[in-house]
Design brief:
Layout (H helix, E strand, L loop, with lengths): L1 E4 L9 H8 L5 H9 L4 E2 L15 E4 L20 E4 L3 E6 L16 H9 L25 E7 L2 H12 L4 E9 L6 E10 L7 E4 L4 E12 L3 E8 L6 H8 L24 E9 L5 E5 L4 H12 L2
């Protein structure tokens, strides 16, 4: 049993912050999970992560459970397309057919493997899961290319995630969808969660889901397709892909969400995170914009040739 008696120096600290300062090798998210499961007690009571410690509180717990204790993610020399970098923040352009971070089943050739080679574990924030997601502020699906925020420090991680939560960071995507969207711009607002029949998929739910909001704007129209810009206001897994299907305009070649096979071969969905806007720790507004990727370019070239 580990036991700590709170002194004046640690009074008024959050419980999760206090433990994270002691166990720097564990991520804050891992510590929070242990607190939620009741492993950690304050004065023999289960408290929330946000509990503010008081003088002479007694914090006790058995050894922390870390689901990734037996996993070691190795650095790999992978070419990274860095689009912005300062002392605390990186913006990297992730290619298609690459996972953002390792999983239990795949632990090589991900963006994180490349980040670990270039920056080392000590050069990336550990606010996220220590082994699997060092520095990762948000993620992209394997076959969605584009811009990702990476935090070098815990301060920048908290700063960036706050901007995403408060919707001051702007994330825009380009996609080509099936059919002709009726309105030039609009909003899709639904409840969102795991598909009850297919666990690998997400879905719009009628109840008991999290709110998901996507804005859209038409860029160019074709006979049976629409080139469109999406803007995320929330960041649910597969959000744009599911919302596109929900309005009956699935993203071209997105086989998971019911798109027909397009005449031009692509690496699954024709979707790219092309625009990021955020504030760095020096309170300077940063905008990072990239050109259309190979799949977008190929499909647009084909569609324009048929006009």
């Amino acid at each position: 049993m580990n036991e700590y008696i709170i002194n004046e120096e640690n009074t008024n600290k959050r419980l999760d912050v206090f433990l994270n300062e002691i166990y720097k090798n564990l991520s804050r998210s891992n510590i929070q999970k242990n607190i939620k499961t009741g492993i950690v007690k304050v004065n023999n009571k289960i408290e929330k992560n946000s509990y503010k410690l008081k003088l002479n509180d007694i914090v006790n717990f058995n050894d922390f459970y870390n689901k990734n204790d037996n996993v070691k993610i190795e650095p790999q020399n992978i070419n990274l397309d860095i689009k912005y970098e300062d002392d605390t923040i990186i913006v990297v352009n992730k290619p298609k057919n690459m996972l953002t971070h390792p999983t239990i089943n795949e632990q090589k050739n991900t963006l994180v493997n490349g980040l670990l080679y270039k920056y080392g574990r000590g050069g990336l924030s550990n606010c996220n899961d220590d082994e699997f997601r060092p520095g990762i502020v948000h993620r992209l699906d394997r076959n969605t290319s584009g811009l990702l925020l990476v935090a070098k420090t815990n301060e920048s991680y908290e700063f960036l995630t706050k901007q995403i939560k408060e919707k001051t960071a702007i994330r825009k995507y380009k996609a080509i969808v099936e059919g002709n969207i009726e309105n030039d711009y609009g909003e899709i607002r639904t409840l969102f969660g795991r598909d009850k029949k297919h666990k690998e998929k997400m879905a719009v739910l009628e109840s008991n889901g999290k709110e998901a909001v996507t804005l859209y704007k038409v860029i160019e129209r074709f006979k049976n397709y629409t080139f469109i810009e999406f803007e995320l206001k929330t960041g649910r897994t597969h959000q744009i892909r599911v919302h596109s299907k929900y309005i009956n305009h699935p993203i071209v070649n997105d086989s998971l969400y019911g798109a027909r096979k397009f005449k031009v071969n692509t690496k699954e969905q024709v979707l790219q995170a092309y625009y990021l806007e955020f504030t760095n720790l020096n309170n300077q507004l940063q905008r990072v914009i990239i050109n259309e990727d190979e799949d977008l370019t190929k499909v647009l070239r084909y569609l324009r040739s048929k006009k």
